[in-house]
Design goal:
By secondary structure, the chain is an alpha+beta fold. The chain has two domains: 95 residues; 133 residues, no CATH class. The protein is built from nine helices and six strands. A hairpin with a 2-residue loop joins strand 2 and strand 3. Helix 5 crosses helix 9.
Length: 233
Amino acid sequence: MRGMEPNVSTRTIWIHGEEYVRVRDRLQMLRRDHPGARIETELIQLDRESHFALFRARIELPSGALATGWGSETGDDFGDYIEKAETKALGRALVALGYGSDANASVQDDSARVEAVLAQLSERARAYLEHLCSSQQIDVRDLMIAHQVRTPSEASSLITFLRAAARPVRSGDDVLNQLAELADRLGIRVQEIEDELRNHRGFDGDWAKLRLGDLLWAQARAVALARARGGQS
């Protein structure tokens, strides 16, 4: 077990129009609010042969508040899977203390917002959006949640992406990075999304061969996986 002293500069990134604070930056905010907080991580399991790592993170505030987070990762998702597992565990402990959002609660909140946005679309625009999604076997609501759509204009912008579904993705690295960020936000693993792509879209492991439609499908499917994990109907 070891203590950690973050040394980061505050920075946010944008995921589908949503400002997202990285774990390292949430650690900095914790230190700002609670300079005396004790942060520890423990490597619970490491299997170098199967490339699997499991960490437990423990954060204790001076007030006595305590949170524990668990995180696992595999080499199938990341070359630095050990570091990623530790980061995931820390992120979940931080969420428990209010630094970040709970993925399943976020999906539930987003579902209500999506219904409100769909209700504001014209009947024609909604029908066209649903038609384009159906042609790619995409759940329109899950796609809107993945992209965190908040307005009718943002919903309509998805039509542009869907109409370009047959186009190749920009790069394999870009796809993997987008899915990794989304998986982290939703509290699932990239490997789960990859498995879905293999089972339902004929994915052969080469991210650069995917089409934009495959990426959109994977983003929507990630939301469905997160909802199922949270036991939501």
